[in-house]
Amino acid sequence: MAISQIKAVIPAAGLGTRFLPATKAMPKEMLPVVDKPAIQYVVEEAVEAGIDDILVIIGRNKNAISNHFDSVPELEEKLTEKGDTGRLAHVMKSSDLADIHYLRQGEPKGLGHAVLRAKTHVGDSSFAVLLGDDLIDERDPLLPTMIDKHVETGATVIALMEVDPDSIHMYGAAAVESTGDPDIVKVTGLVEKPAKEDAPSNLAVIGRYVLPAAVFPILERTEPGKGGEIQLTDALQELAADADGPGVYGVVFRGRRYDTGDRVDYIKAIVQLASDREDLGPELRPWLKDFAERL
């Protein structure tokens, strides 16, 4: 299978309640991270991995997402008249990134349900799932490694990251076996948001998956689980337990990741990314040092 055959699915139908009242009328995926909405980083990541067909699963009041990736001729004309080529390039880039499609989830029934909604668009192809509020720094590419492992084995591939055991209850946790490669593990089991004492490891599932179309019939019969929602983790557990199938592998990510779904991590993401930028860092870094000394 070639990478060009793999599509991307970005679930973006969540209510963003942790950011109320900011997300009362604005999708949480459109909250700016420095000067781009969070979801644009995710789309750019998929494009950099060679994917040009992207389906965004949206909910009510999410039209701002599709508007962002549309062209805005009147704005482009104004910037052209002003000779503002820098901002014009940024505006036009978001309109030309990829072939982006949109599908409503309807009733929010969990991540597994959102992924299942992509069945008609994806068809029999493998596909990547990228959570819209989970940002992977472009300097630490993750998705290409996951796609390569899927193409090699035909297996489901998920992204894992070591977390503090005290935080594992916030994630899906993976039971794993070594493959001889420290960055690739065989996943033997998954537990959604376990208590610390029940977690099989401190390897947490983060928001990147490369899935075969075989996940769809499993999701169709998956009953609501944790939180009364259809959990993708439960379907992945079935794939991992299938002795006759290609199984599930995990790529252990050791790079920079930003959880923009959490308020504190969202602020950290803005500070870290802005500090590293050539146009903002030289002014921001000294101010941060001075501010930290005054705390």
From TrEMBL:
EC number of the protein: 2.7.7.9
Q: Which reaction does it catalyse?
A: alpha-D-glucose 1-phosphate + UTP + H(+) = UDP-alpha-D-glucose + diphosphate
Question: Where do the Nucleotidyl transferase domain residues begin and end?
Answer: 7-274
What's the source species for this entry?
Microbacterium pseudoresistens
The reply on keyword Cell membrane is no
Q: Which UniProt keywords apply?
A: Nucleotidyltransferase, Transferase
Identify the taxonomic lineage of the organism of origin: Bacteria, Bacillati, Actinomycetota, Actinomycetes, Micrococcales
What does the record give under GO molecular function?
A: UTP:glucose-1-phosphate uridylyltransferase activity
Task: Report the sequence similarity comment from the record.
Answer: Belongs to the UDPGP type 2 family.
Q: Which domain of life is it from?
A: Bacteria
Annotated GO biological processes are: UDP-alpha-D-glucose metabolic process
Keyword Nucleotidyltransferase included in the entry's annotation = yes
Q: What is this protein called?
A: UTP--glucose-1-phosphate uridylyltransferase
Cross-referenced SUPFAM superfamilies: Nucleotide-diphospho-sugar transferases
